[in-house]
Please model this.
Amino acid sequence: MNKPNSAPTMKDVAREAGVALGTVSKVINGIPVGESYRLKVEEAIKKLNYRVNSYAKGLKSNRTFTIAVMVPNLISPFFSKLVNCINKSLAQRGYRMLLCATDYDPEQEQSYVIMAEQQKVDGIICLSYNPNLQVSEDVPLISIDRYFGAHIPCVASDNYGGGALAAQALVRNGCKSLAFLRVGSKLTNEPNKRRDGFINACENMAVPYMMKILDDGQPYSAFEEFLQAHMQDGKLDFDGIFCVTDLLAHQIMGSLRQMGLRIPEDVQVVGYDGIRHFGDLDYTCSTIVQPVEEMAETCVDLVLEKNEGKTPSLICLPVRYAYGGTTRS
Amino acid sequence: MNKPNSAPTMKDVAREAGVALGTVSKVINGIPVGESYRLKVEEAIKKLNYRVNSYAKGLKSNRTFTIAVMVPNLISPFFSKLVNCINKSLAQRGYRMLLCATDYDPEQEQSYVIMAEQQKVDGIICLSYNPNLQVSEDVPLISIDRYFGAHIPCVASDNYGGGALAAQALVRNGCKSLAFLRVGSKLTNEPNKRRDGFINACENMAVPYMMKILDDGQPYSAFEEFLQAHMQDGKLDFDGIFCVTDLLAHQIMGSLRQMGLRIPEDVQVVGYDGIRHFGDLDYTCSTIVQPVEEMAETCVDLVLEKNEGKTPSLICLPVRYAYGGTTRS
DNA sequence: GCCAGGATTGGAATCGTTTCCAATTGTGCA
DNA sequence: TGCACAATTGGAAACGATTCCAATCCTGGC
Model:
């Protein structure tokens, strides 16, 4: 009641309780203190409705209990699910999350890193497509799906294994000839390994395959031309398609249906990600499911524990195949 | 280079540039200062790679340039789209976003409000289903879809108009008898008005309707029983259904198809929200589209400008009907 | 050439915590 | 009863920025 228009501070609490500043600090931080003192302080805190000013705390202690999370957007179901899981994981550990949607813009990504440093967050988890992202040494950074080098841990799903799994699933369902479709990316990031796994599996099974990989700026219609080119007598050259993401799978399926093809009768399609309708209903297509929860959990573990070089710098988490109606099983 | 293991401070910059602390502060904050001084300071900043410590800044200035955003989760496409838009809007204005996913838990929601106060964020935008959320006076709060009272601005889509629009769309497409389906909620929040708008429109058009509103804990299967009860000779009593959300619409359509009904031939379905496949492909069903971008923009405007009582406390933004394949047009 | 007055800069005080050291209290033993 | 030592508390300094007032510098006029 002394200073009307201002939140109570530790000093007010100390005065109210008739104890010293340091004692109040100890009570707040759970450091043992005389029983009677603790009670007086707790009472005063309640009476004044005191709240810690975390800016003062952050300034003094250099801990913010905030992690910055950087993703391209929240529109894509995979990203939003991932962020949702990371948020939950952080909350459980008493951390806050500063969210940064970068819209794939390298400049924005860089500016968020700078912002994160300014904000003095305790760490950054980032899913970036910016190959030359400059990161300061003193902010722990965890990368998802993109390997920057041994000094920055990278968490990813087992992209190579997933690619193989997709090929195997298609063949198991009777496909005789496969196709791999991917949108363009000059980046050598982890998801590119889906192709390698796919190719390797095809060769091991001695199954013919072809690929169509769009160049960076090429429009989606290039895929339609590709499909048209491989149509003969109302049938495709291949009877199984692995699309690099569920999103692409859906676009492709739209085109296939327009061309009069039935899925999965005429051609079977497998995607990658494990997107579900409305986040948790059924799968939107047969797909390779990324272990989003585990990936999120792993990122949070890594960013908080900053385990010194103990962990490998590339962590691949296992994927699984899930039936979603666009294959025979 | 003086203090090796620690980030440079304004003091270091001042020493490096040979000027006073206050001068550095002015340069950083764009307050006019002698040309030669400004250059010296800017050079020193670059040389030392100085970054503002926003915790010190926040402590002193009581501004954080951070807004807390509270939603139940990011799994639901509507929420994630909303958060995505809010994030973009905040970033454009130089604000950061602290994200809080509450999982519908009143306790968590409350704890986030407290956290937000501690963090001394500049404001909160919240989509809460907690009827008795306690909010402090000194943190500007904007509510989405839930009206707390005249002191807290509420942003919502035109739920009443949307309900009417849904009924009109179904009738326009030839429906003779309608049904309204909603999951339970004891809360009197804005989306409840969808029902009122629907009823009013039905009565104006003299079209018969029925409703099935689940009680709070009732399982989804209650809807299936309802549908079964209204089946006669392989046909439903009604030929148009308005579901209170797109998510419910999809669940209902699943049930309808299992019962052997064709959509939209046997029964037409309209949802509410305007969810799109993968965030920006086609609509997942015929639906009433919420103006998410505008809602986000409005929230951000309100929370930042804290316009003193000038704005109405309930802001309804216009909705529109969108065809999504589950009606005739 | 000198002084008054305006315009800038310099530097101290401050924000609300944490932390550390000195001061005080209390306990136990002789 | 008195003293020494352990255990706590009290209070000051520090974190890094902002802000305000006093001190300094310049300019222009006489």
In short: Residues 19-23, 26, 33-34, 37, 56, 59-62 of chain A lie near DNA strand D (CB under 10 Å from a C1'). The mean pLDDT of chain A is 91.
